[in-house]
Amino acid sequence: MFYSEAEAAVSEAPSPQRVSPRKKQPKIMLPAPLPTQEYCELARAEPSVSDSGERMLVILDLNGTLLYRPNPRRKPSEHKPRPFLGEFMEYLFRNFHVMVWSSSRPENVAKMVEKNLDGAQKARLIACWGREQFGLSAKHYDQNVQCYKNLQRVWSNEDIQKKHSDYQDGKRFDQRNTILIDDSALKANAQPHNLILIPEFTATDEQINGADILKEVAGYLEKVKVQSDVSSYMHKNPFKAGEHTYEWPG
């Protein structure tokens, strides 16, 4: 399901006891990109399993998905990782091409990546994108605006395409083989059936001590990675918490 219109978020009024240098501004809702007719037609096709062994692309969000930043304005790089993030990253790099795409500023993205990926994993990232990769105007870059992850930006980037394992054989990253993992459905409005939507991580006691959602995502990816077109499979079989599992190696 995609959003045809986005409603502006209403910020909470600050507590009278709290003295802040500036109030949090309401989110500016920029127009959301819509799925193309071609995209929708391909996603409606019947899913089928492929034996090509093609290595797919997983695009990772950071804040709210893999980690939680308690105070993004004053301490933008301070964060708490989601439980079993290390095991999940090891799984991803064993099975997929991996990139990061966050709406945070690039210097903060770099710090979060530095703290959560080891040297070999950082070297294997095919891209690490921050706020500069959303096509925002200079004015909007510094404002609280709704960002959208239109995967066409990824697919039209030749430097990224050259990282495809079978680039020399004519293979490219596209709708068939790209998976976005995010906690916001709205960000994936242009390609809703390439999204694994997971609950926002806010580091509550229940999330820290409860079910391992990343293990469930890995279990789902085990089914997705053998599909000839991930969008047609994910259209008919979207990720749902509690329906998948995976055992982290030893």
TrEMBL record:
Organism, as annotated: Corynespora cassiicola Philippines
Gene3D superfamilies: HAD superfamily/HAD-like
UniProt KW keywords: Mitochondrion, Protein transport, Transit peptide, Translocation, Transport
Pfam families in alphabetical order: NIF
GO biological process, one term: protein transport
UniProt similarity note: Belongs to the TIM50 family.
Quaternary structure (record): Component of the TIM23 complex.
Annotated region (Disordered), positions in chain: 1-28
Domain annotation FCP1 homology: ranges: 51-224
PROSITE patterns on file: FCP1
Membrane-protein topology: Single-pass membrane protein
GO CC terms in record: TIM23 mitochondrial import inner membrane translocase complex
Amino acid composition bias (Low complexity), ranges on this chain: 1-16
Function, as annotated: Essential component of the TIM23 complex, a complex that mediates the translocation of transit peptide-containing proteins across the mitochondrial inner membrane.
Name of protein: Mitochondrial import inner membrane translocase subunit TIM50
Compartments it resides in: Mitochondrion inner membrane
PANTHER family the UniProt entry points to: DULLARD PROTEIN PHOSPHATASE
